[in-house]
Design brief:
mainly alpha; four-stranded mixed beta sheet; 15 helices; 2 domains; abc type-2 transporter like fold
């Protein structure tokens, strides 16, 4: 009981220290509010309001119809562009797509001559250009096929119906909001514990703790539980006020289960922060060490890039990262309402990784205290 009391009181000391750190408190407020809301509303995955121009050399009913089928929100209303301004418009970046409809296009199509339609793409806007060119090609192909062969659609042997589960309107902001929270939890879990340990070393308070009847295990657990409580509370408030309130994202799963999984993830990630802090001699050095660790955890966990798109060896390597399992657990719980019976392999993997990280951090922390 004395050890538990020591851990509890040391954790309260950490919370008191955090309460007087106004810069860190402002960063916490920003990370779980503005930094969640702005990417979810401003960063759109897919084609949205893409600028389109049409060079209509045919001036036929078909060419006017092709201009009318491109509508918001995927595309802006197409602008008519003279042929001699095409290159200048593309060079200046005014339009992402320019469709050039040649003369006699409608007549050649109806005569079965298979005329060419030119689509100019500004590929400097890579994501918009890649997906927009695909969507434009599909739309134009469908409309031209219906115009040249009105009965062709009735002769299709198979009808394909697509249904999107969990996010029927394919709103990318829903996933981006949750991804931002997961990323900020990872960043803060590593930085809070690491900087707290190094700040005590630089101020000399760590030496004061060592003369007390305290063990390295008690000091580590105090830092882990206090910082975990802060991050869990911020996560819960962000879900309620930003994700559900401001963004209107319907969360199907249990938030209590998600917060419990978050606490488990914080056990692993805060231990990683302490381990990195034992390798550094100052807070700036710790920041340099944390960058090559945190960035791969964020970029390769399956949020920014689908795990299936990565090389097989990288997929296997990222299974050793707790962020990979945490992202899978987060989306499964909040969007699919999955329970422990389905997610137990991921929970077991996250627990095992957390214990390994904690053991390595404790061993390194003990050796650094006696060095």
């Amino acid at each position: 009981m004395n050890k538990l009391a020591h851990i509890f009181r040391l954790g309260l000391k950490e919370l008191t220290s955090l309460r007087h750190d106004s810069v860190l408190l402002l960063f916490l407020l920003y990370a779980f509010s503005v930094a969640v809301y702005m990417p979810a509303t401003g960063s759109v995955i897919g084609v949205h309001h893409a600028s389109v121009a049409i060079v209509d050399e045919d001036r036929s009913p078909l060419s006017r119809h092709l201009a009318e089928i491109l509508q918001p929100p995927e595309f802006q209303i197409p602008e008519l562009l003279p042929y001699d301004q095409l290159d200048a418009a593309m060079d200046s970046g005014r339009f992402t797509f320019v469709i050039d409809i040649p003369a006699n296009f409608q007549a050649d199509l109806l005569a079965g001559r298979q005329p060419a339609l030119q689509l100019n793409v500004d590929a400097t806007a890579m994501s918009q250009a890649f997906m927009g060119a695909r969507d434009l090609g599909r739309i134009l192909q469908r409309e031209l096929l219906d115009y040249a062969h009105p009965d062709a659609s009735a002769q299709v042997p198979v009808g394909l119906t697509s249904r999107a589960l969990f996010n029927a309107n394919l709103q990318g902001g829903w996933f981006l909001a949750l991804l931002q929270i997961v990323n900020h939890i990872t960043i803060l879990a590593v930085l809070l514990t690491g900087t707290a340990l190094l700040r005590e070393r630089e101020h000399g308070t760590l030496d004061h703790l060592l003369v007390l009847p305290l063990t390295a295990l008690e000091i580590m657990l105090a830092k882990i539980w206090s910082n975990a409580v802060v991050v869990v509370i911020c996560t819960w408030l962000s879900l309620e006020l930003v994700v559900k309130g401001a963004l209107g994202v319907p969360l199907a799963g249990s938030q209590a289960f998600f917060l419990a999984v978050t606490a488990l993830y914080l056990f692993a990630s805060t231990a990683l922060g302490i381990f990195l802090a034992t390798l550094a001699r100052s807070i700036p050095q710790f920041g340099l060490l944390a960058i090559p660790v945190i960035i791969p955890m964020l970029m390769l966990s399956g949020g920014s890039t689908p795990m299936e798109s990565m090389p097989v060896w990288l997929q296997q390597l990222m299974q050793l990262s707790p962020s990979t399992h945490y992202l899978t657990l987060s989306t499964s719980i909040l969007f699919r309402d999955a329970g422990p019976g389905v997610l137990w392999p991921e929970l077991a993997a996250l627990t095992a990784i957390g214990l390994v990280f904690f053991g390595l951090a404790l061993r390194r922390f003990r050796s650094s205290l006696t060095a």
